[in-house]
């Protein structure tokens, strides 16, 4: 079978991309027309390991009653994320029609209001380098470090090459992620070159998506017999059988027929997006922070812990009350419990807990703000915020893993107020909400102390 041509560039090669977007692309009826060139986010190890296997890897769907393995061959090229020269070359090719992103919520480097955080040291350094080189022969020798500034440089190369329109598809757990990406790139482009900003506005489409598939990190090899051949894989992906992908937006240069693999294309994505973001991701974060305070290490352990399950149920009730009536939540919640209880998926709470300030902002604070705005009870979402803060103040997050803002807030004279300010300008100025958050922190600290005895 011939290798499909590269028509998709992906930033953020990792387990989730391989379990989701690469999986859907491989299963589409026109998969032979759509190859993916993927770039890692932080390390070249995965790129090298996949390259040694020709980009092919084993996807293991781990259900309660057994495993199902399949080979995925949609990734035809893997690169170190720092290989900006190759990114420029690919995005200058008119045959490349799509850029997909799984750079994590923190990878967008946003401030609390959703704009690019210009206080971020990496963003500042990248912008200074781009401004200095812009218009000169040395522009494409720049080596920006942030994912969006790398993408910005690639889009400028496409503009100069006259390579035509392109779609940028965010697959990260941010509300209205297409608009967030568009706003961030417009802001960065405006700070560097107004002509590029105008070109992006005219020639780049931003697609909003909701992605759903529990995919824990996995280390180790896997041996399986597939199509009569024993396959030894150094970098397999372990995931759950469930998967969902909802997309809204235009693809001006074409796209795979992902709908033939189960994806859904809709006009209005917000109901699907917030249901998944609040009910699945929100519950995951509650289980992570509340669970580790109770001595749990995995999702399976935490969902079985009574106080964690109660916190999740209360948060679900509050979040579900904010959703449109047309969005079904009762069956979805029951299905989530079954997915969380799949003991064969070892999803570590420490993995979920990473980048908590970004996650708590969109998973907890957004629910609390909307509940309070409509005069409803926000106890569950405020308690979820307390869980994150209590987890930080108990020392569960390694200092080196915290962002500069979180580390400074933890060390502040009033860490609770400083941490809430990272999530919401509304809540930090609401005295009653702050009182509830403080009470929650105190109660959780007491419970954590008693648990440790």
Automatic annotation (TrEMBL):
<dbReference type="InterPro" id="IPR013118">
    <property type="entry name" value="Mannitol_DH_C"/>
</dbReference>
<feature type="domain" description="Mannitol dehydrogenase C-terminal">
    <location>
        <begin position="269"/>
        <end position="392"/>
    </location>
</feature>
<dbReference type="InterPro" id="IPR013328">
    <property type="entry name" value="6PGD_dom2"/>
</dbReference>
<dbReference type="Pfam" id="PF01232">
    <property type="entry name" value="Mannitol_dh"/>
</dbReference>
<dbReference type="InterPro" id="IPR008927">
    <property type="entry name" value="6-PGluconate_DH-like_C_sf"/>
</dbReference>
<dbReference type="Pfam" id="PF08125">
    <property type="entry name" value="Mannitol_dh_C"/>
</dbReference>
<dbReference type="GO" id="GO:0016491">
    <property type="term" value="F:oxidoreductase activity"/>
</dbReference>
<keyword id="KW-0520">NAD</keyword>
<dbReference type="InterPro" id="IPR013131">
    <property type="entry name" value="Mannitol_DH_N"/>
</dbReference>
<dbReference type="InterPro" id="IPR023027">
    <property type="entry name" value="Mannitol_DH_CS"/>
</dbReference>
<feature type="domain" description="Mannitol dehydrogenase N-terminal">
    <location>
        <begin position="7"/>
        <end position="259"/>
    </location>
</feature>
<dbReference type="InterPro" id="IPR036291">
    <property type="entry name" value="NAD(P)-bd_dom_sf"/>
</dbReference>
<keyword id="KW-0560">Oxidoreductase</keyword>
<protein>
    <recommendedName>
        <fullName>Mannitol-1-phosphate 5-dehydrogenase</fullName>
        <ecNumber>1.1.1.17</ecNumber>
    </recommendedName>
</protein>
<dbReference type="InterPro" id="IPR050988">
    <property type="entry name" value="Mannitol_DH/Oxidoreductase"/>
</dbReference>
<dbReference type="InterPro" id="IPR000669">
    <property type="entry name" value="Mannitol_DH"/>
</dbReference>
<comment type="similarity">
    <text>Belongs to the mannitol dehydrogenase family.</text>
</comment>
